[in-house]
Amino acid sequence: MERVFVAGHKNPDMDSTCAAHCYAALKQRLNPGFTYLPIRSGPLSDQIQEVFAQAGISVPPHYDTIAPTVGLVARRSPVLIAPDDPVLEVFNAVKIRTISSVPVIAQDSTFAAMVGVNEITSYVASQNQEHRPIYTFLVENFEKVLPGTLLQRGAQNRFDASLVTSAMPVEQSLKRLKRMESPPLLVVGHIPEIIACAVKNQFPAIVLTGITSPREIEKLIKGYKGSVFLSETDTAESIRMLRLSSPVSTIMDTQVPRLQADMPFDEAKALLLSSSYRGLPVFEGEEFIGIVSRRSFIERPRPKLIMVDHNELSQAVDGAEQAELLEIVDHHRLAPPSTNSPIEVTTRVVGSTCTLIYEEFSARGFAIEPDIALLLLSGIISDTVNLQSPTTTEADRRAILRLETITSISAAEHAQKLFAQIKALGQREPQEIILSDFKLYEQKGIPFGIGQVEVTTLSDSASYRDRLLQALEDVANQKRIDWAMLMVTDVIKRDSLLLSSGYPAGETLLPFRKQAERTFDLSGVLSRKKQLLPEIMRVLSKAGAQ
Asked: Does residue 203 contact residue 224 with C-beta atoms inside 8 Å?
């Protein structure tokens, strides 16, 4: 089934992560013909991991990028060849189905090798050498390539031998047979002297042509221990087809490079086109999932994506610009990418994306299971600071009440548990603190970013302030932005500090009290989206106009 990624923003927070999982679950109910995969593009906090563990749900898998991978164009081959199948099967696949290579699948259903045009060419070329070629034969393959009857199965089912016939006077044929270093596979008509020679010397197999009844040769093959096949076609055709009865294992390529499904599309394309191979196998871990040929790379695939809790490419998982955007579910300001066709957009002024997803479940009359309800409850509590943020709406309150009933969990008690897990900033790496929930924006051509981190007290801010200020400068340089900020929010007292990387043109216009160098007191400010971001936008608009 075709896969659709459901992704929150980079550096996922509780609302983003829970929303991705819950919306994927809703979409799976609505469209079972697709596979909806919730993903994340950053590490998860202890809070988030604890909530998912409590719900008994695996956290969304981590994806650095959703840029096209070779797995998107890997296809099951229309032909599967076994190692013991005759080479003729490969010839037919290439000729009739016009495919350049096919996978060889072992008896235990695992991938063994690839075989195709290159191997056929080498095999045919080897028959034109000066010396008589030696072939590997499987007696059971005679019936697969020749019309006729296996009259007698010999002791050797598999053997290596050359192919000979008798197309000259009997005496000369007998002399030639006696000079041969090893017993050949004999293809001959009803010539008693030649057949007797093969029996006496116990050739591994005899293919007889022009025999109308087995009785004709019963006495001739008495005491013979090899295989006897009665061919219904002439000698020349029997020899030609016997050459194609050799098992595929004799020509298959077991050293063919293996591609992993998550290999970037362009990297896999370059690898194949720069090689002599016509096709390569693709794996997910150790599991063979299909093959790619050169024609697989003619058209570039576009992964399908649903964005939740964001609508800007700057905040999206890497590779989102190469995806087909199907839908947006968000509660932030709108700055979405342009699309080639209309898409569904769900956006309302609420405090949490999880509130929107709760309402989508309700609007469709779907029951919400307790595990999904716990994730939705956690997302709303986190994004609205348990309904204390100025972004909180009546819709958030209604959702909380209903989700408390479904989960039998008190929102207040759950919030206390969540906030109690917040680590003191002194225990964490400065860049990890800044980037754990960092969002990029642009105003009047000025790129900037704001991170937010929650704490249970600001009284110890002096102990970590200098380290965070230095880290903000580093982040600004790494992200190539003009201004990097961190909003440190006390979820208990509902106040915040704003730390700045240093952007004098903007800092001098901020309406907040300056507490120390590049440090501002945001009394009563809890929301980055509703309270801080509009002020930063205003400041930058004014700074750009000066």
From this structure: no
Q: Which two tokens stand for residue 276?
A: 């002599």
Dihedral through CA 359, CA 363, CA 368, CA 373, nearest 10?
A: 0
Beta strand 185-188 with 163-164 is parallel
Q: Has residue 130 got a pLDDT over 70?
A: no
Which residues, 6+ apart, have CB-to-CB distance to 452 below 8 Å? 437, 486, 487, 488, 489, 528
Q: CB burial class (10 A; 0-12, 13-18, 19+) of residue 108?
A: exposed
Model confidence pLDDT, tens digit, residues 417-442: 888 877 778 788 999 999 988 999 99
Task: Supply φ then ψ for residue 166, to 5 degrees.
Answer: -125, 100
Q: Is 429 helix (H, G, I), strand (E, B) or coil?
A: coil
Q: Pairing mode, if any, of strands 344-347 and 438-443? A: unpaired
Tens digits of residue pLDDT in 495-518:
999 999 999 999 999 999 999 999
Q: 3-state DSSP call for residue 524?
A: coil
Tokens in use for 27?
């979409």
Rounding to the nearest 10 degrees, give the CA dihedral for residues 50, 54, 60, 62.
30
> Which structure tokens are listed for 529?
């989206």
User: 183: closest CA among 209, 218, 155?
Assistant: 155
Collapsing DSSP to helix, strand or coil, 74 comes out as: coil
Spatial separation of the C-alpha atoms in residues 262 and 71, rounded to whole Å = 6
Exposure b/e, 299-312, CB count within 10 A at least 16 = b: eebebbbbbbbbbb
Q: How many CB atoms lie within 10 A of CB 73?
A: 22
The helix/strand/coil state of 462 is: helix
Task: Say how many residues make up the chain.
Answer: 546
Query: Residue 278, SS3?
Result: coil
Give 546's pLDDT tier (boundaries 50, 70, 90): low
| Per-residue pLDDT tens over the stretch 321-359 | 999 999 999 999 888 898 889 999 999 999 999 999 999
Q: How far apart are CA 341 and CA 344, in angstroms?
A: 10
For tokens 């690839």, what's the residue?
Answer: 114
DSSP 8-state class, residue 129: S
- Tokens 């965070």 belong to 468
Q: What one-character DSSP code corresponds to residue 35? A: E
